[in-house]
């Protein structure tokens, strides 16, 4: 019985050693840094990034809504 306990303890120690080695290899795998530099500037500006276009679009939308609401009151 004592020999079985010794084998069990040695088995647990070996599993612990394997787990620690595996976790250490995962930590080493995460140690590298990757430097990624993407330059996607095409030189032009996007139309939706212009604030004046949003203001003009909002004003036109409000004018259209007002014209539709007033168009039915021809009493």
Could you explain the architecture of this structure?
The protein has 75 residues and is mainly alpha-helical. Helices cover 64% and strands 0% of the residues. The protein is built from two helices and no strands. The longest helix has 28 residues, at 2-29.
Helix content: 55-70%
Give me the oligomer status. Answer: single chain
The secondary structure category is mainly alpha
Alpha carbon gap, first and last residue: 106 Å
- Cα radius of gyration in angstroms: 35 Å
Question: Which spans of ≥5 residues are poorly predicted at pLDDT below 50?
Answer: none
Biggest sheet record: none
Percent range for β-strand residues: under 5%
Q: Would you count the extended β strands for me?
A: 0
Return the string of H and E elements: HH
Mean pLDDT across the residues is 79
Number of helices: 2
Q: Give the CA-based shape.
A: elongated
Summarize the model shown.
With 75 residues, the protein is an all-alpha fold. It has helices spanning 2-29, 51-70.
Chart the SSEs and their pairings.
Elements: H1 2-29, H2 51-70
Key traits:
75 residues, mainly alpha, 0% strand
